[in-house]
Amino acid sequence: MSHILLKSNRNYRLIFSASAVSNLGDGVSSVAMPWLATLLTRDPLLISAVAMAQRLPWFLFALPAGVWTDRADRRRLMVRADLVRLALTLCITGMVLSAAAIPPATGGTGMILTLALISFLLGTAEVIRDNAAQTVMPSLVRPDDLEQANGQMWSAEQITNQFIGPPLAGVLIGAGIALPFGVDAATFALSAALIWLIALPPSPTRSRARFWPALVEGLSWMRRNRKILRLALMLAAINAVFIGGMTILVLYAQEVLGLSAAGYGLLLTCGAAGGVLGGLTAPRLARRIGMRASLMLALFAFMLLQLLLGLFSSVTLAGIALFLEAAGGMLWNVVTVSYRQRRIPDQLLGRVNSVYRFFGWGAMPFGALGAGALVAALEPGLGRIAALHAPYLISAAICFLLLLYGFLKLRFDEV
Prior knowledge:
Layout: H1 2-8, H2 10-40, H3 44-71, H4 74-98, H5 109-140, H6 146-175, H7 179-196, H8 211-224, H9 226-256, H10 261-289, H11 291-311, H12 315-343, H13 346-362, H14 364-382, H15 384-409
Protein name: MFS transporter
Subcellular location: Cell membrane
Domain Major facilitator superfamily (MFS) profile: 11-414
């Protein structure tokens, strides 16, 4: 069935290909960026600052990005964002190549701050690009195909982002730390070219209201629709603990699990296996057990993965944890994004999505910084290894509370 959608729908095929290509580059940089940071410093707070900088634009710019998305040509927004990311990734490549050598781990503060600034700008472009990409999907496929299209595309993203990208990054880092960023830049160029070829139908309903009234309209719609607002607030907590754990994971992998760059890349591919499985099975599973049960299952997976990382120091269990996280995350996303795409009017989709992501993604920078600060604060009293376990144990407690809240509060009219 999925191959029919790809074969018959040219526009979907183009956005599918662009997403797969750009996610290959993202998978490479997801290993290369934190690895570069660990070559510059071993301070968990400074490393978390780079992760925070990349996510901070979701807090600062998610709301205005929604207004821009509803006013502008969404295809052009995606192309321009990819070209900006191409230029910024080339800046990282140039920064690394221009250095005589990577400074020792006790130095490199200036380069860390530069890396954080570029990460912030990359995150800003990502806010605009991702909001436009998610809001354009209902214009490319029929409403009945949304779960299938989202699940299929996210499965491809998982394959390129985590199956292929991280191991490839480990090989490229061995050849030179600048090389993975060059590959990432090339994927942004190809993605921009593919998006440019999409032919969108005319949209006479584009918002022409002034900025503030247009933004208030999106906020008001979200406030009136409590189910979607509740999902947004839950996603904020989920993403905060997720990005906190992923920020610390690069140090956890090196110091607790004893992995090299190649080993770290392979560890991340375990998450890809869960993501692919989740993406392919989530539409069918959601239809069979319903939206509420699907979300409960995802929340349970989030809690279990945090416990595995917090209680044990095993590469095998860490791989299982990442598998569970990706599978649960894919199930959560396929169900909730398709639910939003169906229920939000097209002329409001960009703004309401941006409000949703302001809550859901805006919490990420604080989760990233909080995890690094927690490790730094606990290390003197508990020791380095125990401190690296601590964020996952606290996250497990938060996920348990989310599971309890979801059981009590999440109710949907099943369709």
